[in-house]
C-alpha cells in the first residue's frame, strides 16, 4: 500500500480516511450502535492490511483503556456505599434564588465529575434540580443545561475526569515516555469552569423556559382509566384475549387489580377475567370509556392508580431514551420488551408534551420521556441499553461506615497517583481491589458497573489514532496546517482546538481526541516546540461540546427531563464554545511555554 501514492498520501492513508468518514456518516445517519461501528473500523483496517494484528488489537491492551475499565469498578464502590447520596444530602442545601442555585449546582457537580463518571453524577442531580426548580418557581430547563455543562467542565480538570484525557495522556506517554500527573489539566480546567459558571449566569436569558416532561406525568388519572367488571358481565371466565381487551381502540390494558389487591402487570393474553376485577387502561381516555357499552363494564368507584399508590408491589418510574437506545425507532407493540423486562409503558412525552395516543403504538425517539409501571422484582434491575432511570435502584444506597471507607479508598488512589508514588493504572487497580476487600461493592456489582460498549469505543478510538499516525495522515495534516499558518505555533494550536471542538459536537469526544492527537503532536514536533501545551489544550477542546444535545451523553440525559429542543442548546452553546475556547488557549499559553 505504501507504493501507491495519490495527492501525497499512500493507499493505506486513503483507506483509513474513507473508513473513518464512513463511520462518522453511519453514526450520524443510521441507528447503528457506536461500539459496533468502531469494531467494524478495526476489522476493516486489519483486513485491508493498514494495521497488523498487534496494532489492530492495541486499543484493547492500552493502559488508558484498562484504567477506564478499572475506574468503573471503583465507581461501583462509591455508588453502592452512598457517597454521592451523602454529598447530596448534607452538602448542597437549598438555594434562595436562581443565581445561587446555578453556583450551588455547577460547582459540586464539577467537583464530583472531576473524579467520577459524568453520566452517573448528572443522573443523580436531575432529581435535585426538579426539587429546586419547584421551590424557585422556575422551569427545570433553566437549570438542567447548566447541570450538563458543569459535568463537562469539571471532567477536564483531572486526567480521570473524562475518558479523552486518559486516552490522550496514554498516547502521549507512549510517544514521549512521560506520564502526566493526574492534575495536569487542573489549572486551565478550573479557569474554564470559573468562566463557564459566570457565562451561564450572564447568559441565563438564553436558557429556554420549557415545560418539563415530568409535569405531564404528575396526574396519572389524566391518561389512565379504571373500569370494573360487574358480577353480571358476559366476559367473566374468558381470557383477556377472548374478550378482546388486551388491545382496544385508543389504548391498552396495563394491569388487572383483583379484589384481594393482587396486581397482574403486565397482563398476559391468557389471563382469565373475574367478577370484581379492576381493569386499568392507558391511552386516550375518551375512547377507552366506550368499553362500558361494548363490553358491559362500569366505572370504578374511585381511582387507585396514582403516583402515591399504596401497593408496595408496584412502582411508577420515569425513564428517558438516550442516543442509541434500542427502543429508539420502535413501537413497543412490535416488540416483546415489556414481557422480557417485566414492565408496562403507561405514557410517552416528547419535548415536554404528552403524546395523546396509545403508548404502545408510538414510535419512540431519542429524548422521549417514558412513564413506566413495573413490579418491584429482580428483573426491574435490568436496564435496557440506552434507557436511563434516574431513580434507578443502582443509585439507592444506605449511608453508613462503608461510605467513609470507600471515600478514603478513592482519596488514597488520587494521592498515590498525584504524588507519583504509583502510576495511575496501578493505583486504580489497588483501589478497585480495596473496594472488593472492604465489601464496598460485590464482584458482581463491580462487573456490572463496567460498560463494555463504552470500552469498545475507547479501544476503537485508540486504534484509529494509531492508523492516522502510521499512514502519514497526521504528518500530512500537520504540514498542511503549518503551511497555512506560517509555522505560527499559537495559530496552529488555535486551528486544532477549533476543529476538534466542532467535531466533538457530532461524534464521541474520545474519538475526536484520538483522531486529533497524532496530528497535534506531529505539528508540535515538526515546529520544534513543546508538545505539552498542545496536548493539554486538546484535552479541554475535545470535551468542550456545548452546542448540540448529541455532543455529550450528559446533554442527552437532560434533554428529555428538560423538554428541550435541538435549537435550545445551539442558542447558548455556540457562545459557550467560543468563550471556553478563548479561556483554554489563554490560560494554557500562560502556564506552559511553547
Portion of residues in beta strands equals: 5-15%
Q: How many strands, what sense, and barrel or not for the largest sheet? A: 6 strands, antiparallel
* Overall number of strands: 13
Question: Whole-number radius of gyration?
Answer: 26 Å
Q: Could you outline the blueprint of secondary structure elements for this entry?
A:
Elements: E1 5-6, E2 9-10, H1 11-29, H2 34-47, H3 53-56, H4 58-61, H5 63-80, H6 83-91, H7 98-113, H8 118-136, H9 141-155, H10 163-176, H11 186-202, E3 224-228, E4 247-248, E5 251-257, E6 263-264, E7 278-283, H12 285-288, H13 291-294, E8 298-299, E9 314-321, H14 337-341, E10 343-350, E11 353-354, E12 369-375, E13 387-389, H15 401-418, H16 424-437, H17 443-449, H18 452-470, H19 473-485, H20 489-503, H21 509-527, H22 531-542, H23 553-562, H24 566-591
Antiparallel strand pairs: 1-2, 3-7, 3-8, 4-5, 5-6, 5-7, 9-12, 9-13, 10-11, 10-12
What does this entry look like structurally?
The protein has 594 residues and is of the alpha+beta class. The protein has helices at residues 11-29, 34-47, 53-56, 58-61, 63-80, 83-91, 98-113, 118-136, 141-155, 163-176, 186-202, 285-288, 291-294, 337-341, 401-418, 424-437, 443-449, 452-470, 473-485, 489-503, 509-527, 531-542, 553-562, 566-591; strands spanning 5-6, 9-10, 224-228, 247-248, 251-257, 263-264, 278-283, 298-299, 314-321, 343-350, 353-354, 369-375, 387-389. Strands 3, 4, 5, 6, 7 and 8 form a 6-stranded antiparallel sheet that branches. It has a 5-stranded antiparallel sheet with strand order 11-10-12-9-13. It has a two-stranded antiparallel sheet with strand order 1-2. Strand 5 and strand 6 (263-264) form a beta hairpin. Helix 5 (63-80) packs antiparallel against helix 10 (163-176) and helix 21 (509-527) runs antiparallel to helix 22. The radius of gyration is 26 Å and the shape is elongated. The relative contact order is 0.15.
Amino acid at each position: 500500500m505504501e507504493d501507491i501514492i495519490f495527492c501525497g498520501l499512500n493507499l493505506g492513508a486513503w483507506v483509513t480516511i474513507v473508513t473513518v468518514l464512513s463511520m462518522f456518516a453511519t453514526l450520524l445517519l443510521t441507528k447503528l450502535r457506536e461500539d459496533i461501528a468502531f469494531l467494524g473500523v478495526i476489522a476493516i483496517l486489519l483486513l485491508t492490511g493498514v494495521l497488523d494484528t498487534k496494532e489492530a488489537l492495541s486499543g484493547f491492551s492500552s493502559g488508558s483503556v484498562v484504567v477506564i475499565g478499572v475506574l468503573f469498578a471503583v465507581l461501583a464502590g462509591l455508588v453502592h456505599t452512598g457517597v454521592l447520596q451523602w454529598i447530596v444530602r448534607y452538602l448542597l442545601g437549598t438555594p434562595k434564588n436562581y443565581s445561587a442555585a446555578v453556583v450551588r449546582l455547577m460547582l459540586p457537580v464539577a467537583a464530583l465529575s472531576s473524579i467520577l463518571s459524568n453520566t452517573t453524577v448528572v443522573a443523580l442531580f436531575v432529581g435535585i434540580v426538579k426539587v429546586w426548580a419547584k421551590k424557585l418557581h422556575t422551569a427545570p430547563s433553566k437549570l438542567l443545561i447548566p447541570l450538563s455543562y458543569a459535568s463537562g467542565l469539571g471532567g477536564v480538570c483531572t486526567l480521570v475526569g473524562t475518558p479523552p484525557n486518559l486516552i490522550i495522556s496514554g498516547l502521549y506517554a507512549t510517544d514521549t515516555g512521560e506520564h502526566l500527573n493526574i492534575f495536569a489539566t487542573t489549572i486551565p480546567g478550573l479557569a474554564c469552569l470559573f468562566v463557564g459558571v459566570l457565562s451561564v449566569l450572564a447568559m441565563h436569558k438564553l436558557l429556554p423556559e420549557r415545560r418539563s416532561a415530568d409535569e405531564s406525568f404528575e396526574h396519572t388519572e389524566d391518561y389512565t382509566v379504571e373500569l370494573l367488571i360487574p358480577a353480571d358481565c358476559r366476559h367473566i371466565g374468558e381470557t383477556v384475549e377472548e374478550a378482546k381487551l388486551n388491545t382496544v381502540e385508543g389504548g391498552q390494558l396495563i394491569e388487572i387489580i383483583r379484589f384481594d389487591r393482587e396486581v397482574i402487570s403486565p397482563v398476559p393474553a391468557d389471563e382469565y377475567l373475574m367478577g370484581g376485577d379492576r381493569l386499568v387502561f392507558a391511552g386516550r381516555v375518551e375512547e377507552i370509556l366506550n368499553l362500558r357499552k361494548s363490553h358491559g363494564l362500569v366505572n370504578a368507584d374511585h381511582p387507585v392508580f396514582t403516583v402515591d399508590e399504596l401497593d408496595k408491589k408496584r412502582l411508577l418510574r420515569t425513564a428517558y431514551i438516550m442516543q442509541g437506545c434500542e427502543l429508539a425507532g420502535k413501537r413497543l407493540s412490535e416488540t416483546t420488551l415489556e414481557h422480557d423486562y417485566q414492565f408496562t409503558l403507561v405514557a410517552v412525552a416528547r419535548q415536554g408534551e404528552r403524546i395523546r395516543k396509545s403508548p404502545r403504538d408510538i414510535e419512540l425517539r431519542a429524548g422521549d420521556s417514558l412513564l413506566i409501571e413495573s413490579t418491584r422484582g429482580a428483573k426491574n434491575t435490568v436496564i435496557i441499553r440506552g434507557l436511563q432511570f434516574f431513580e434507578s435502584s443502582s443509585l439507592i444506597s444506605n449511608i453508613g461506615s462503608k461510605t467513609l471507607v470507600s471515600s478514603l479508598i478513592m482519596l488514597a488512589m488520587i494521592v498515590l497517583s498525584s504524588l507519583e508514588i504509583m502510576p495511575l493504572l496501578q493505583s486504580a487497580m489497588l483501589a478497585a481491589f480495596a473496594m472488593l476487600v472492604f465489601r464496598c461493592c460485590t464482584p458482581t456489582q463491580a462487573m456490572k458497573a463496567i460498560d463494555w460498549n463504552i470500552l469498545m469505543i475507547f479501544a476503537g478510538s485508540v486504534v484509529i489514532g494509531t492508523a492516522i499516525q502510521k499512514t502519514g495522515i497526521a504528518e500530512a495534516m500537520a504540514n498542511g496546517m503549518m503551511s497555512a499558518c506560517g509555522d505560527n505555533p499559537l495559530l496552529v494550536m488555535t486551528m486544532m482546538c477549533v476543529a476538534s471542538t466542532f467535531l466533538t459536537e457530532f461524534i464521541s469526544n474520545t474519538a475526536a481526541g484520538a483522531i486529533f492527537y497524532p496530528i497535534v503532536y506531529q505539528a508540535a514536533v515538526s515546529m520544534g516546540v513543546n508538545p505539552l501545551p498542545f496536548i493539554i489544550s486538546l484535552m479541554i477542546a475535545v470535551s468542550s461540546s456545548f452546542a448540540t444535545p448529541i455532543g455529550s451523553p450528559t446533554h442527552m440525559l437532560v434533554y428529555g427531563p428538560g423538554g428541550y429542543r435541538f435549537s435550545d442548546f445551539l442558542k447558548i452553546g455556540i457562545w459557550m464554545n467560543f468563550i471556553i475556547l478563548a479561556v483554554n488557549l489563554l490560560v494554557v499559553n500562560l502556564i506552559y511555554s511553547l
